[in-house]
Sequence to fold (496 residues):
Amino acid sequence: MKYLCKIQYVGTDFCGFQVQPNRRTVQGTLNTAVNAAFGRPCKVTGCSRTDSGVHAKEFCVTVDLGGELPIPPEKLPLAVLPHLPPDLSLYDARAVDDAFHPRYSVVRKEYEYLIYNERVPSPFWQNRAWQLPRAIDDVAFDRMVEAASQIPGRRDFASFMAEGSDIKDTVRTVDLCTVTRKDALLTVTVGADGFLYHMVRNIVGTLIDVALGKFDPEDISRIIAARDRTQAGRTAPSDGLYLKSVFY
Amino acid sequence: MKYLCKIQYVGTDFCGFQVQPNRRTVQGTLNTAVNAAFGRPCKVTGCSRTDSGVHAKEFCVTVDLGGELPIPPEKLPLAVLPHLPPDLSLYDARAVDDAFHPRYSVVRKEYEYLIYNERVPSPFWQNRAWQLPRAIDDVAFDRMVEAASQIPGRRDFASFMAEGSDIKDTVRTVDLCTVTRKDALLTVTVGADGFLYHMVRNIVGTLIDVALGKFDPEDISRIIAARDRTQAGRTAPSDGLYLKSVFY
Fold:
């Protein structure tokens, strides 16, 4: 048996999830904390990789201490708490079989991307949203909404994959792509059975390019059909991206 | 003529608003920024004092550069922007007469206090809310709401003033005191024509003491009537407090 845990983190001061030598990572920090709590080595495996600066409101990991669970799962969050830094929390745990893999067992994930749209940046959204000073008016916002509505479907999303990725199968099923606005904050939500490298950030960058007039909403179909990264828009910065939920 | 400006700041890394030697303060930081933008000394005056760690979503200051306004008010935010740190922004400015005083002219202010109520703290609310692990269930929440409803009125609020304050007239008119909840986040909103030192934090601490059973909601009238700080509850920490709006 091992633990399947839900964690949250502010990504700003982490070099992403995956452990790297001489870098502060979520995986490395969590490993050290669990190790300190139980006095024995453990194996932490994540549901996904996230880049430097990307945040997670719900990220899943398995924690394997080798064999028996030392304490009941519901006690794990408070046992690990004293050993975690304030930008990382473990808030839920349950027991799963050794065969369970937190990455291969994922059936769907949802990301949220926040854009703070005011001419002066907000201190409260520093590192936590894309602070975009150029005004997105109602017409531009409607263009974004229309463009977003053309993204869902089972398609080849190679145009939204970062150049240099060596993934062969670039077909994914996006079941949700919406844009909402509340005051100065725009939220893009994307759900899919899987994501290519930088896929959400490239979708968001392209939607902003639609809002600002570089593309028309109708161009989305053409961009996807091209299967060519150079046809799509810019890559939105990492600060605004949040892994929101993971489904098994 | 001088400028009346609206600013925002995350209070965590400031030792409050008011300038102090060898301390990073909002007033000092703003003074330096305006000075750098115009190459001449200025006088920055605030609408209020805030303590270390307290935040502001809307705080008003006057900026006096001595006589003529060097640029139109609407251009001030972008002129100062390059000289401000990311935890402080100036997002609005208009011209006012020299006679206008940003503190004495205030007729009403509104504060917001945020409480994150989960057994494990959230990295996203670190320094930005009171992270309270003890569960406030529906019954406890209803007690808070009832207690809050007894606070508004023109009364002597000495019981909610920090000990050691030397203010003589402790009568204020509170016109709003509400508690709302959305998921794990509780928001206490208090509006008044003026506030005593630590008044909002002492009201919030007392409401939490009501929620957790130390007081009953009916005790509020007695606590206020006592005009005695020792009769009220604890002082809520500074992290959760936000100046929300200032009315002239």
